[in-house]
Write a structure and sequence with these properties.
CATH topology: Rossmann fold
CATH superfamily: Glycogen Phosphorylase B
Number of helices: 9
Radius of gyration: 16 Å
Order of helices and strands: EHEHEHEHEHHEHHH
Strand content: 5-15%
CATH class: Alpha Beta
Strand order of the largest sheet: 3-2-1-4-5-6
CATH architecture: 3-Layer(aba) Sandwich
Helix content: 40-55%
Shape: globular
Distance between the termini: 37 Å
Largest sheet: 6 strands, parallel
Length: about 200
């Protein structure tokens, strides 16, 4: 089995989120030794940062880093951990069951909450108006909690199927309203202009 890690597209984002994902992966591997991991790095500089973190990890032989091909990774893996943003909608498009993992500095988070009025951060949840994908944000982004949720999801075929069906409904609805994948991403970008997605923001 292969699980995908999608830690975001900005350096500050990756530095906060990838260590959580990596520790979570370690706990998953302890329970399921046959599982391996693939990390989608948005650029070569981010891949370098990720590889430096991996070099200090006992998981380094189990993790492959792929640069600039998040879509390919989404089609290869059977489940994923995804940072908030456009990748959550792309995961839904590729029918990839996933959990959302996101952490920024608290000042950034609170500033964002003043701007962004939606209850959820993951685009499938925002579009559905309810939680389809479990969200682990800020203090809830704990490796032990996330690893249990990932294992529960991948061990439950009914839950996997239900999540994919929900994704199908969301993508179909976007299609019916005339929103292409690119238009949908533009909507996501517009929603994500709040500071919680701008991890170049100091904090």
């Amino acid at each position: 089995d292969l699980i995908g890690l999608f830690p975001g597209s900005r350096l500050r984002e990756v530095r906060k989120i990838f260590p959580i994902m990596l520790e979570t992966a370690g706990q998953i591997a302890a329970e399921r030794p046959e599982i391996h991991f693939e990390v989608a790095a948005a650029s070569e500089p981010l891949a370098l940062e990720i590889r430096q973190m991996l070099a200090r990890s006992s998981l380094r032989e189990r993790v492959r880093v792929v640069v600039g091909d998040a879509a390919g990774t989404m089609q290869r893996v059977s489940a994923g951990m995804v940072a908030s943003g456009t990748a959550t909608l792309e995961a839904a498009y590729f029918k990839l069951p996933f959990l959302l993992v996101y952490k920024v500095s608290w000042p950034t988070y609170f500033a964002a909450r003043l701007v962004l009025k939606t209850k959820h951060l993951g685009m499938p949840n925002v579009l559905a108006g309810r939680e389809i994908v479990p969200e682990f944000i800020q203090h809830e982004a704990q490796p032990d909690t996330i690893s249990k949720a990932v294992l529960k999801l991948i061990n439950d075929q009914a839950a996997l199927g239900m999540m994919v069906s929900e994704f199908d409904a969301i993508i179909a609805k976007l299609g019916e309203t005339g929103a292409s994948a690119n238009a949908a991403r533009a909507i996501v970008d517009e929603l994500n202009k709040g500071p919680q997605m701008n991890t170049d923001f100091h904090g």
